[in-house]
Please model this.
Amino acid sequence: QMQLMESGGGLVQPGGSLRLSCAASGFTLDYYAIGWFRRVPGKKREGVSCISNRDGRTVYEDSVKGRFTISADIAKNTVYLQMNSLRPEDPASYYCATSLYNDCRSTMADDFGSWGQGTQVTVSS
Model:
C-alpha cells in the first residue's frame, strides 16, 4: 500500500526557514512524481511544487519561486521541501501526494493521490 507521511512543520518567524519531509512507504520513489500542496481553512488545496524523480524536473508555483526548493533522496525514499524566507502568507497545512501521471504536467490536486496526513506550518513573530 502506497503511503506518504509528512513531517517538519512548526512555528517560525517571518523570514525564517523550515524543511518539510515526505517519507514514502510501500513503494519506491524512483519512477514517481511527488507534489507538495498547501491548504488554509476555507480555501482549496494549492499546488506548491512538484518533482519528477524519473527525469529530475521540478515545478514551482509563482509565489514560492526562489524561496522554496524541492528535492528527493531516493536512498531514503523521501522528498523534501526546503522553505526559506517564509512570509505571513505561507502558513497552511502542507501535504505531499503522488502524481497520477507520474510526472509534473499538472499541479492540480485532482491529478494527485495517496495523500499524506499533512504537517502544519505557522509563520508568526
